[in-house]
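Hello again, I could really use a second opinion on something today. I've been staring at a protein lately and its backbone has me curious. You're getting the sequence in one-letter code plus the fold written as tokens. I'd be grateful if you could look everything over and explain what you see. No rush at all, and the record is pasted right below:
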Amino acid sequence: MARVTLEGVRKVYDGAHGHVAVHGVDLDVTDGEFVVLVGPSGCGKSTTLRMIAGLESITAGKLSIGGRVVNDVPPKDRDIAMVFQNYALYPHMSVRDNMAFALKLRKLPKTEIDQRVREAAEVLGLTTELDRLPKQLSGGQRQRVAVGRAIVRKPAVFLFDEPLSNLDAKLRVQMRREILALHRRLGATTIYVTHDQVEAMTMGDRIVVMSAGHVMQVDTPEALYERPANRFVAGFIGSPAMIFLKGAITSNGTPRFVADGGEPAIALPAGVAARAAGSREVVLGIRPEHLRLGSEGPITAEQPALDATVELVEPLGGEALVHVRAGGNELTAKTRARELPDVGDRIQLVADGRRVHLFNAESGEAM
């Protein structure tokens, strides 16, 4: 397998002064690592992957695979294999022939081709499907064939471009498990693109969060959740999304964050409040799972209650989302309470001040 290194890799369309799709990406993917590029549509993640694959030219910067600079190396000579969103199978060829096609082009011996196809089919549970056509397969089976076509090449690097987007929710979960099991078995360096942050969090050893062609943060899933570098990452990672409130911190007695308009007011530990020392205005972020109903536990001076009005309740089985209004701000609490309030009820919420995040109101950077 191989290390993949991007140094200031940049992509500009329509000349040097045209549209900048990717702004100087620096990334080091170690041998055998599973790295996920994630971000909203148009953030540059697929363009970055296509530059690694050689399907897009690099405007500036340096790309290395296995210690070799490959900026001007054609895709077929980069020792990579790519799995696309649309499978890209030949409809008139059997599963066996689809998987063997690239090996036949390389004029490998027939015995070696047959052995590689058979081994990949066993790994992917396709042994009984080898003589069928793609139209006779389910979506999940077709995706397995596309993955198998990549496996038989035994590349240094696997590249996945939104490979599960065409599958239903249940099948996506199953295929995520299968791709991860395959990664553990092969130990392959893998770069995976998705717009789904849940997919990214459950699959990646590290995650690259992108926005508007910029890398916002590269870190482990846990670090992105617990220590987001800026407001964009904080809002993108986590489901339901983090809640943001603009306001100021008061230091009379117990430090408090007071939202613009006076409500809500959230008590903060001194150490948390100290992060914003000297700032006239800050943005506080808190995740729905760190807000609870007052009925779920004690209300103390360290964690006083907020008064709120229920606007919507979404039961989700073992838990529920309770959407409320406190002052002029909308909040969402994620709760496991058995007795849920009704729309229009006045309730109390308790915010865990130890779990809040503070951001610079102008730059959006974490404090």
Summary: The chain has nine helices and 20 strands. The CA atoms of residues 147 and 179 lie 9 Å apart. The chain has a mean pLDDT of 91. The first strand starts at residue 4 and ends at 13.
